[in-house]
Amino acid sequence: MTEAQRAVRAMARTARLMERTLPARLSMADFRMLSAIGDGEARASRLARRLALGKPAVSATVESLVKRGLVTRTAHGSDQRAVDLALTAEGVATLADADAALCRTVERIADATAGPDATVRVLADLGPALDTLLAAREACTPSPAGRA
């Protein structure tokens, strides 16, 4: 088995462990959406690009989060088609609880490695690397007909 294959399998197992770490009412999709909105992504179209999801998946997740009182939707200024998303106070608290639980899990995993601090640094570097890859992929993807 190659190092890359071992890494893939470890990441898959890690993803499952992270899912189990989340508070009972959150899925990993919910967490990704809450964290992106919490980071300032207020528009569904930008969420779809950032999270590499289709707009229907973003819409369904946002609808669920709104119904649970974790996210609000408000009209965006003069563009009546656009909607801004924001976390409610409960959404902020839920995200903070999830972040804390997930950080504890990452720290426990890292502590089981030969270099815990280096492991956390490498994992943290994955975020910007993923952003770069997604941006490059988006730049190469032709826009649908009739859209700029």
TrEMBL record:
<dbReference type="Pfam" id="PF12802">
    <property type="entry name" value="MarR_2"/>
</dbReference>
<dbReference type="InterPro" id="IPR023187">
    <property type="entry name" value="Tscrpt_reg_MarR-type_CS"/>
</dbReference>
<dbReference type="GO" id="GO:0006950">
    <property type="term" value="P:response to stress"/>
</dbReference>
<protein>
    <recommendedName>
        <fullName>HTH marR-type domain-containing protein</fullName>
    </recommendedName>
</protein>
<dbReference type="InterPro" id="IPR036390">
    <property type="entry name" value="WH_DNA-bd_sf"/>
</dbReference>
<keyword id="KW-0805">Transcription regulation</keyword>
<dbReference type="InterPro" id="IPR036388">
    <property type="entry name" value="WH-like_DNA-bd_sf"/>
</dbReference>
<feature type="domain" description="HTH marR-type">
    <location>
        <begin position="1"/>
        <end position="135"/>
    </location>
</feature>
<keyword id="KW-0238">DNA-binding</keyword>
<dbReference type="InterPro" id="IPR000835">
    <property type="entry name" value="HTH_MarR-typ"/>
</dbReference>
<dbReference type="GO" id="GO:0003677">
    <property type="term" value="F:DNA binding"/>
</dbReference>
<keyword id="KW-0804">Transcription</keyword>
<dbReference type="GO" id="GO:0003700">
    <property type="term" value="F:DNA-binding transcription factor activity"/>
</dbReference>
<dbReference type="InterPro" id="IPR039422">
    <property type="entry name" value="MarR/SlyA-like"/>
</dbReference>
